[in-house]
Design brief:
6-stranded antiparallel beta sheet; transmembrane; transmembrane helix; DUF4293 domain-containing protein; DUF4293
């Protein structure tokens, strides 16, 4: 029963988390030095950008590791893929969906922490920076996870109602 709609939603969740690993999450430009601080799932580093937006060199600040973001994204994707193949046990799927919600909330919190607190302290400019495409992936994943959990619960209620009729 892999062809159910919740399997599609869980696959989209895993795809969003894999995309998050490769997309930039947040950036903040320092006009005084011409450097841009870029947050990704694996590190927080400064780069020098050209007028077209291409990276021309490394910045002067040492990069900081943000491996927690990458590991949480991988863990979330693995849970979602494992949850797809637990279609015979919907109660286990619901528990895994709850676990995935908690991990996604931790992932979103960790991303916000690195963007707003660690990154803003590294570049003392008054603006908050720009949120990139990868920053919104945990929010998309939370939404898709909620839809998957809803349809799993709907299937479980349907099976229970049929069992009552027997």
């Amino acid at each position: 029963m892999i062809q159910r709609i919740q399997s599609v939603f869980l696959f989209l969740l895993a795809a969003a988390m894999v995309a998050m690993l490769f997309l930039p999450l947040w950036s903040k430009a320092n006009p005084a030095t011409g450097e841009t601080l870029v947050l990704s799932a694996w590190n927080l580093k400064t780069v020098i950008l050209s007028a077209e937006g291409d990276v021309t060199g490394a910045g002067s600040m040492a990069q900081r590791g943000t491996i927690a973001i990458g590991l949480l994204a991988i863990f979330t994707a693995v849970i979602a893929v494992y949850e797809i193949f637990q279609f015979k046990n919907r109660l286990t799927q619901m528990k895994l969906g709850l676990l995935n919600t908690l991990v996604l909330a931790a992932l979103a919190g960790t991303t916000v922490y690195y963007a707003l607190y660690v990154g803003s302290a590294m570049v003392p400019v008054n603006n908050n920076g720009e949120y990139q495409a990868g920053f919104y992936m945990p929010l998309l994943a939370l939404f898709v996870n909620a839809l998957a959990n809803r349809f799993i619960r709907k299937d479980e209620n349907l099976v229970r109602s049929v069992d009552r009729l027997r």
